Inverse folding.
């Protein structure tokens, strides 16, 4: 099946919509501080319940026939659920079996992998500025995660390292393969989120002990479900299906930067020269990778 390349204006708009997910994901760390003490899989399950619930309410509000959009072929469900649940499963396994800094940095290979994997799609090509922009973004993210230090990989954490890499590969593969399912409406993500919540509850029951959330923790869970673990997946779905994957992959490196800045503004972290250098690297990488899109936009405005 040959995929049609989206028109420039539609492609740019979809890229901008997808980039909203990066902003929402950057709020994840700040909001999660309010849910400290809730086990990871329990937090994931409850957040996805909220996210899917909002999606179902939206679907129901658009008419009686809208819920039929959940009836998709098995391959679409397999991709959606394995992407959402698989990423979180491997990510939490990586954090549990390896130092958080190392696991986080290895997981943040996914934006670079999106840029590389996208070259395998029909009608897509990766140019030098895409790779250079993604590399600059990775370097900026590495500065933030390590705080200017270095990774010290040790063989005893091998399982954790492999799990973190698996998380990166899972999310990158999901994001790129999603382009092959452009006919699946974004509303179907509500169903994928619901199944992900159910699987997370199963993992919680097998691996964790239930912690009853306080009022403040419930508020954080609700905010997570509305934003970073809710709306973000819907706009990312639209962006990866119809936008510029190379640019989205590079822009994704802004998430750890914006996350750090939000924590600084909230008094949860300090502003340092490391943050400043990371800002320059990530912003420069995003601009470099977006060169072609910006050129197309100027050309369309001039015509």
């Amino acid at each position: 099946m040959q995929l049609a390349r989206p028109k420039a204006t539609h492609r740019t708009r979809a890229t901008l919509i997808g980039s909203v997910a990066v902003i929402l994901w950057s709020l994840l760390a700040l909001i999660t501080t309010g849910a400290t003490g809730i086990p990871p899989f329990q937090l994931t399950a409850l957040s996805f319940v909220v996210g899917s619930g909002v999606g179902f309410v939206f679907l129901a509000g658009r008419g009686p026939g809208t819920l039929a959009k959940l009836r998709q072929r098995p391959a679409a469900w397999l991709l959606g659920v394995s992407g959402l649940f698989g990423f979180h499963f491997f990510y939490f396994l990586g954090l549990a079996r390896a130092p958080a800094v190392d696991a986080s940095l290895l997981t943040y290979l996914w934006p670079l992998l999106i840029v590389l994997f996208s070259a395998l799609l029909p009608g897509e090509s990766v140019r030098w500025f895409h790779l250079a922009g993604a590399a600059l973004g990775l370097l900026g993210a590495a500065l933030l995660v390590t705080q200017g230090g270095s990774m010290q990989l040790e063989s005893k954490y091998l399982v954790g390292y492999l799990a973190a890499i698996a998380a990166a590969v899972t999310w990158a593969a999901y994001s790129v393969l999603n382009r092959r399912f452009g006919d699946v409406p974004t509303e179907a993500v509500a169903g994928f989120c619901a199944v992900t919540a159910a699987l997370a509850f199963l993992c919680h029951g097998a691996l964790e002990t239930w912690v009853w959330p306080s009022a403040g923790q419930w508020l954080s869970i609700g905010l997570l479900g509305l934003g970073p673990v809710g709306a973000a997946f819907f706009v990312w779905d639209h962006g990866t299906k119809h936008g510029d994957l190379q640019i989205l992959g590079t822009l994704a490196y802004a998430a750890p930067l914006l996350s750090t800045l939000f924590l600084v503004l909230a008094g949860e972290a300090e502003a340092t020269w490391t943050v400043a250098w990371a800002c320059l690297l990530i912003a420069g990488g995003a601009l470099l990778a977006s060169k072609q899109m910006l050129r197309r936009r100027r050309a369309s405005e001039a015509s």
User: Anything to note?
Assistant: Residues 5 and 123 are 6 Å apart (CA to CA). The longest helix spans residues 215-242. DSSP finds 14 helices and no strands in the chain.
